[in-house]
Amino acid sequence: MEKDSKQMFLSRGCYCAPQPHTRQLDVFRHSCNKLDAFDWLQNIKPSEIYTPGDIVEVRFKNSRKEFFRATPDLDLRVGDIVAVEALPGHDIGIVTLTGEVVKLQMKNKRVNPNSEEIKRVYRKAKVSDVEKWVTAVKQEDPTMYTSRGIAHSLNLDMKISDVEYQGDHTKAIFYYTADDRVDFRELIRVLADTFGVRIEMRQIGMRQEASRLGGIGSCGRELCCATWLTKFKSVSTNSARTQQLSLNPQKLAGQCSKLKCCINYENSCYLDILKDFPDVEKELNTNKGTAVYAKMDVLKKLIGYEYKENPGRIIMISAERVKQIQALNAKNIIPEDLNDEQFIPDPGPINNFTDDNNNLEDSLTRFDKPQKNKKNKRRKKKNKKAQER
After folding, report:
1. DSSP letter, residue 252
2. What would the DSSP string read from start to end of 224-244?
3. How many Å apart are CA 20 and CA 128, to the nearest integer?
């Protein structure tokens, strides 16, 4: 049970379950997840012209973060467990950012710091607050499993993927996914009678569900959406075509059954390289026959062609060579072959790491001491002694 409680509080940024009667200094833990925030202004002294910020960033379970207004007498620091305003009652969270960097974070998320909708920080969490919070968190998993059975008994086409209790144990948020609209009015009445708390239903997408639950991707690493990725950009099959990927749904889809977000990571690099590529739809006319496009290697800037008379045998040539043949064909000049001897390929980058005497400045061994030949040294000594005699 102790191990399970630790796992429950990891989603809230805690190293372990908080103990109500001990100091909470070591509960908060910076870990490799997207809710972690680094204050890069912490060592910079704020200017006397600007008034210090009174807003702090507070994290809750998984991907939920909000901004709250605090009074100056609270003296909040990163890692403090605080009781904040909620509707109804209060909620418990952990402070992740304070000071001037909060203003930049609010600007990034397009939140107006002067808005009246920003809720307040009541106080630092008391012993009674932490006790209720720990009790509520431990009931989240059993509540989720029970609610799934209730939804199944009501024949509702939905999946309850996560449950988050409010810190004062008066409200529970149920996160669910569904393909179509679901009438869950009867479900809310049954859940309220079963658990005795106020019920709130929030529908999330498949990507948000994967980010909340986490997992291991096909690359062998933890999912990007569960660690550092906070904004989901649309992914299309055009990005896969640009990178010459096989349009296999089983390989391109992630655990959320959508196209993998990592397809977009290198897409801009491929698009920049493809700007210098010729039109591959044009046929290349040579004395050996007409060549048509077969495939390409974008990063190596190679394009594969095959002759119509000999299909299946792909010849890889550079993009510059393709441009040259197309220019010759435009002038009604037909080269001998795709790999014509008149075409001199680019020799590539010069290897500067050589030991030649002409390029000692770029040599890796230029700082090494030359080894002395002991035999020649002995011979010189003997010849010197013979001359002296």
Report:
1. H
2. HHHHT--SPPP--HHHHHHTT
3. 7
Over the stretch 259-314, which tens digit does the pLDDT of each residue have?
999 999 999 999 999 999 999 889 999 998 899 999 889 999 999 999 988 888 88
Residue 324's contacts (CB-CB under 8 Å, 6 or more residues apart) are 343
Fold of 139-207: GMP Synthetase; Chain A, domain 3 (3.30.300)
- Classify residue 243 by burial, with Cβ atoms within 10 Å: 0-12, 13-18, 19+: middle
CB–CB of 337/317 below 8 Å?
Answer: no
Structure tokens belonging to residue 20: 């109500």
- Residue extent(s) of CATH 3.30.300.20 domains in the chain: 139-207
User: Any idea which residue has 């209720």 for tokens?
Assistant: 132
Segments of the chain scoring below 50 in pLDDT: 1-3, 341-362, 364, 366
The one-character DSSP state at 222 is B
Name 32's Cβ contacts closer than 8 Å, sequence gap at least 6. 222, 227, 228
How many Cβ atoms from other residues are within 10 Å of residue 130's Cβ? 22
- On the 0-12 / 13-18 / 19+ scale of CB atoms within 10 A, 97 is buried
- Residue 93's DSSP bridge partners are 82
How far is C-alpha 388 from the geometric centre of its chain's CA atoms?
Answer: 79
* The two three-digit tokens of residue 308, written as one number: 């119509």
Q: Which residues pair with 68 in a beta bridge?
A: 56, 119
Place of tokens 């050996």: 288
Q: Model-level pTM greater than 0.90?
A: no
